[in-house]
Each structure stands twice: as C-alpha cells, then as structure tokens.
C-alpha cells in the first residue's frame, strides 16, 4: 500500500499513544452521526458508492469500542461473531452495537456493548476519542470509540453473539504494508474494501476500514 511513513515508528508506549490520541481526537459528538447529508470520505473510498449507501438508507446509529490493550507491546482486542447472527455473521469485529436511548453518548454505548458481549469491565477502560464515522450497507452509521484498556481485565464472551476474542499487536496493524484492498460489490456497484491477514484470521470490511482510519488519524504524518 502507498502512504506516508508513521511519525516516529510503529512501537509506541501506552503514554505515547494516549498523548498522540489526545492531541488528534476528541470525545465531542462526531460529525455525520445524524446528518442525512453527510457522506464520509475515508482514505481511498469510492465517493459514488458511499454517496449511494448514505442516500438509500435511513439513519441508524451504532458504536463500537476499539480497545487498545496497555501491555508492554500494545495490542488490539477483537471479537469474532457467531455464525448465526443476521448481520456480519462469523466476521472479525470490534465489540459494539446499536446506540440506545439510555446511552449518554456513543462512548457509553460502546462500553455497554463491550460489557454485554465480552464482560469487559469499564473500570479498566479509558475512552480517548472518536475515530471517523463509517456508513455501512446495512444502514448503520458506526462511531468507533478509541480506548485504552489497562491490564488486569478479564474477558468472558457471550456465546449468543461472540465465539472468540483475541488480540493482535498494534504495531502489526499500523504497518500500512499489511493493509490490502480487495474488490467487492454493493448493489451492482464495484467498490473495494480493506483486508488485513493475521495468521489464519482475516480482518475485513468495516473493521479493517476502522483500523486503516486509526492509522490515518494517529500514525500517518
């Protein structure tokens, strides 16, 4: 993949990562969450496809947690959805789901969903800011909440939604040469999605797109 080099290498410490996120991100309500005229512009997105998706779907909002685990080498926590779910069955995802009326903000929704899906205790989680809004063909506008997770937490997955939870080194995910583009199609329109392979797992679609956006926001000059 093409792209600018990371600012100061891929291996950031937890304090360095938090400092960089604080300088570049915000927990203010993100642009485009409820604006019907908003069309996201991510790196290499096809604007015609994104405009068509945004125009054809009613606004439904959801939030995911992007958990950065504060180990000696930072990692990212992912889940794998069960095969019987209607949306994104079997795919690698971040914990998350619909923003409900009881949620004070997208971060609260992401924390609640992480507790429900993998029993991640929010006392270990420090939200750092929102990444860019993503619109997906299912009609949802997804707000990724970037967060640092202190060591000492435990994970207990809800088998109704999740079959596995696993970690991937952040430095691996932030190496742009590991981001590849694959051809896809939406309603007859050709498009492309990001994909990242790690061992026998493939991070694909919107989840890989969020990883790419994390690279754009935190690591790209």
Protein model, in words:
The protein is α+β, with helices and mostly antiparallel strands. It has a single domain, classed as Nucleoside Triphosphate Pyrophosphohydrolase (Alpha-Beta Complex), CATH 3.90.79.10. Helices cover 24% and strands 31% of the residues. It is built from five helices and eleven strands; from the N terminus they run H-H-E-E-E-E-H-E-E-E-E-H-E-E-E-H. Strands 1, 2, 3, 4, 5, 6, 7 and 8 form an eight-stranded mixed sheet that branches. The protein has a three-stranded antiparallel sheet with strand order 9-10-11. The longest helix has 14 residues. The N terminus is likely disordered.
The CATH architecture designation is Alpha-Beta Complex
Low-confidence stretches: 1-8
Shape: globular
Helix residue percentage: 10-25%
Measure the end-to-end span. Answer: 16 Å
Q: What percentage of amino acids are in beta strands?
A: 25-35%
Gist of the model:
The protein has 221 residues and is an alpha+beta fold.
SSE diagram, text form:
Blueprint: H1 14-24, H2 47-56, E1 60-69, E2 75-81, E3 92-93, E4 96-98, H3 106-118, E5 125-130, E6 134-135, E7 140-149, E8 162-169, H4 170-173, E9 180-186, E10 189-198, E11 201-204, H5 206-219
Parallel strand pairs: 1-7
Antiparallel strand pairs: 1-2, 1-4, 2-3, 2-8, 5-7, 6-7, 9-10, 10-11
What structural keywords apply?
221 residues, alpha+beta, Nucleoside Triphosphate Pyrophosphohydrolase, 8-stranded mixed sheet, 3-stranded antiparallel sheet, 24% helix, 31% strand, globular, disordered N terminus
């Amino acid at each position: 993949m093409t792209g600018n080099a990371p600012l100061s290498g891929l291996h950031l410490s937890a304090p360095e990562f938090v400092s960089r996120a604080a300088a570049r991100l915000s927990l203010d309500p993100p642009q485009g969450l409820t604006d019907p005229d908003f069309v996201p512009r991510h790196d290499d997105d096809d604007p015609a496809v994104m405009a068509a998706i945004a125009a054809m779907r009613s606004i439904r909002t959801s939030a995911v947690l992007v958990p950065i685990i504060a180990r000696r080498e930072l990692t990212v926590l992912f889940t794998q959805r069960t095969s019987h779910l209607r949306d994104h069955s079997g795919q690698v995802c971040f914990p998350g789901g619909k923003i409900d009326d009881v949620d004070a903000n997208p971060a609260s929704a992401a924390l609640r969903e992480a507790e429900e899906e993998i029993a991640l205790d929010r006392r270990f989680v420090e939200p750092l800011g929102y990444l860019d809004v993503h619109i997906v063909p299912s009609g949802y506008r997804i707000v990724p909440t970037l967060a640092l997770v202190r060591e000492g937490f435990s994970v207990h997955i809800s088998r109704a939604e999740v079959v596995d939870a696993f970690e991937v080194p952040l430095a691996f995910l932030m190496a742009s040469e590991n981001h590849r583009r694959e051809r896809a199609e939406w309603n007859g329109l050709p498009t492309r999605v990001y994909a990242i392979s790690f061992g026998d797992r493939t991070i694909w679609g919107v989840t890989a797109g969020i990883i790419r956006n994390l690279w754009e926001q935190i690591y790209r000059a």
